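From the pipeline queue, job 12 of 40. The input is one protein chain; the requested action is below.

Action: predict structure.
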Amino acid sequence: MGEYKKLWWALIGVLVVAFGILGWMGKEVYNQAPPIPAQVVTADGQVVMTQEQILDGQSAWQSAGGMTVGSIWGHGAYQAPDWTADWLHRELSAWLDLAAQAQYGLNFAQLDGDAQAVLQRRLKEEYRKNTYDPATGVVTVSDRRAKAIAETASYYDKLFGDDASLHSSRKSFAMKEGTLPSPEARARLANFFFWTAWAASTDRPGTEASYTNNWPHEPLIDNVPTAENIIWSVMSVIILIAGVGLLVWAWAFTHKEHDDVGAAPARDPVLQIPLTASQRALGKYLFLVVALFVSQIFIGGFTAHYTVEGQTFYGINVSEWLPYSLVRTWHIQAALFWIATGFLAIGLFVVPILNGGKDPKHQKLGVDVLFWALILVVVGSFTGNFAAIAHLLPAEWNFWLGHQGYEYVELGRLWQIGKFLGIVFWLFLMLRGIVPALKQKGDKNLLALFSAAVICIGLFYGAGLAYGEKTHLSVMEYWRWWVVHLWVEGFFEVFATTALAFIFSTMGLVSKRGATIASLSSAVLFMLGGTPGTLHHLYFSGTTTPIMAIAASFSALEVVPLVVLGYEAWENWRLKERAPWMENLRWPLKFFVAVAFWNMFGAGVFGFMVNPPIALYYIQGLNTTAVHAHAALFGVYGFLALGFTLFVLRYLRPSMQFNESLMKTAFWCMNIGLVMMISLSLLPIGLMQFHASYSVGTWWARGEAFMQQDILQTLRWTRTFGDVVFIVGGLGVMWQVVTALFDGKAAAPAVDAGLAAQRT
């Protein structure tokens, strides 16, 4: 460890404590998850539903697209309602009407204020009371509630079928006709929706809050933020301010310009190492990146259009075979595939450099095998998604071959296993170059950190295999966010930071010592907040107050390192002045600068917007979440993967010159297009929904009447402008990469004596 001993011990200590907390809280999730009753019965013993039927309903929900059709407990897509909030409000309204008819012979809305207040008090007493018997596993409901459940289930039977009376609602929700063709599956679906609403309205034993910490906001039964919610929201802001203050102090007292690296090399050191066979084989990876990228953004425009026309594309009915749920799935999965491919490519490009400028034995074969395995997983998973949502697969095959139903891990389990094995194989290919390099003499601290990040990326995706088709929803969410948050936002962040530091130090642009200190410090900060901060996605997913407290506190610290990214961006941009040949890397550097900008705003500002418990209580599942998702996923990891792609392209095609006008158009169109998407559509809609959620209830903010207002329709249409600008930028990047890859002159090993000298 040498002079870096304190930083290494800090990182090790942070990881031990952070994962200890995450594991301890995982035990809490398992032990305190809302019970799934063995039976729901009426007072006279009539069985309303069973545990098996509830779990079958969870499978039916997954087969219909799951989180791509509306959301559960706030997690999922935003066009259709949140089914938990929607079911709860419909059932409550049905109970009130039944009670009003029985006592007054009128509907609830026709009663005067005093009569309404009496019935609403009785409603709250019945729904907040927990009738679950731990000894028998039975939940008892009144006859009136059983009738309200049946009425609500009838609505969902019609909505998820093809009943003509709800055609306009399906259109508003971007649902295809016959979303769930089987009547039996629709009945089971209703059982599952009921259970999620029961957990959201019934007090957890020993508390005055529901199993979901009183989410969703539902004034009819006083589902309002808890005192703990307010307290830990305030604490999270205080911790954020303290964290930023301590970071500024630490920066002021300990930061100094690292030892002078001296003059930059006269020629690019990477170009002095001849391309190996495995590096030349990476061209197809770069092509796959831009092919999937352009496919994804066109599918994204198609998906966004569904939010205004519902079932048609400019009047053409395409929803029968390409419904919103399917194209949204493809949009997300394509993004994850091309971003991951960009990261795989930069890693494989570095391996021969680590290995002394030569390939490990059969490395090219491994690179080729990994590529075609990736193609198989992409094609197989996309085909499975289509077959599942079109209900072409037998029900028992859906989870394994078709659609898991969970956002960001929608691909069937078989394809998920294939993806995991592919990443593990990538890890094997990486270690074949890393291990020999670690055995060499010299300072290997930066390489050790890079190695650790590679190993974590290779293994931690496996957390997505820790749940099954009928795993409890709270437990599933715990593991799903290990993939979506911890794997992506944690280890990918460390990998990217370390990979850039390693590359720049290898090129002689920064000192190895400075790069090592910066990378270790960044890793400590990222993992300190990011690891326990994973739990902030679980505030309202059937978890307890301790999880809210820990998640709010640590996730606030996630923002702290992002405040200094402006300096990092400036430092990266200044590297182009270190040597004349760095001008050839100006465009990859610009993309890395964009990463720092969007990390600060997309992950930092918009991330903290949805982070404190009190904020997320009202805006979970609204378009404010989509603001953070687009700005962070593309703004950070998308630009980073494209930057890696352009970086590798520059060395695969050493004679290539970036097309300045094309790259300028591409770069600024993507940035401006992303800003337009957010500022003209997603953020205004999200803020209006926030007001609706706070003033009326979550069900209203996600409901048909609110979402189909003219102003919101107009705002969804205006997103088209941002989409078009962004697509122009995406096409520009694709054209640059494709023309360079297929340009024979650019692929030549040298075009002049100077370049030839560099490569020998």
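Job complete. The first helix runs from residue 5 to 32.
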